Amino acid sequence: MLKYFAREEGRVSVGNILGLVVILFLFFGALWDPIISGVEKSRADDATETFLVITGAGATAANVTLGYDLYQAKTAKVSSIVSTNGTDTPVAHAYYEDDKHLEIAGLHAGIARNITVVYKAETENTAWRLIGPWLAVGIVCFVLWLLYDSFIKNKNGR
After folding, report:
1. Region of poorest pLDDT, from 16-20, 49-53, 137-141
2. For the chain, what is the domain count?
3. Rg of the Cα trace of the chain?
4. 18 Cβ contact list (under 8 Å, min separation 6)
5. Buried-state track 97-115, b at ≥16 Cβ within 10 A, e below 16
6. What's the CA angle centered on 75, arms 100 and 41, to 5 degrees?
7. Pairing mode, strands 91-96 and 78-83
8. Which residues fall within 8 angstroms of residue 125, CB to CB, at 6 or more apart?
9. Three-state secondary structure along 68-127?
10. Are residues 135 and 110 in the same domain?
11. How far apart are CA 29 and CA 139, in angstroms?
12. Which one of 9, 26, 50, 125 counts the least CB within 10 Å of its CB?
């Protein structure tokens, strides 16, 4: 399909430029989110854990130790935190990758409660842990190679 846009005379036409713009828009605009979502689905698993958390007097935050690595070590990958104490408003405040500690803020001081954390965990599949970080880079390189092959290499009629 991409070779359709290439001209054998070696000149770049308006069609070449428009074709390139459309392809880049589709890849980096319309198709980027599904690609990243697909990579995340292959590299991350859903995890749910419940912890007994007791805050001391004056403490409104607590650490829990997750059983798995938090995907990309980002607190945004924690989808929900629910407390059995209805007056708590728990939020993921920080994540410490070295020891898998998730700091939860928004707790009331001096209370015991159960906290359920739902999050995206880094997959335990060794192959995906090795391939996963490079998957998006590989897709981008493949698309750039296609563009090079169709628009630059073939403009000389090769």
Report:
1. 16-20
2. 2
3. 24
4. none
5. eeebbbebeebeeebebeb
6. 90
7. unpaired
8. none
9. CCEHHHCHHHEEEEEECCCCCCCEEEEEECCCCEEEEECCCCCCEEEEEEEEEEECCCHH
10. no
11. 14
12. 9
Residue 38 lies in a domain: no
pTM over 0.85: no
Token couple for 94: 């920080």
In the predicted structure, residue 66 carries a pLDDT above the cut 80: yes
- Only one residue has tokens 């430029």, namely 17
Tokens of 30: 């319309």
Residue 39 lies in a domain: no
Q: How far is CA 152 from CA 7, 34, 67, 146, 147, in A?
A: 10, 28, 50, 10, 8
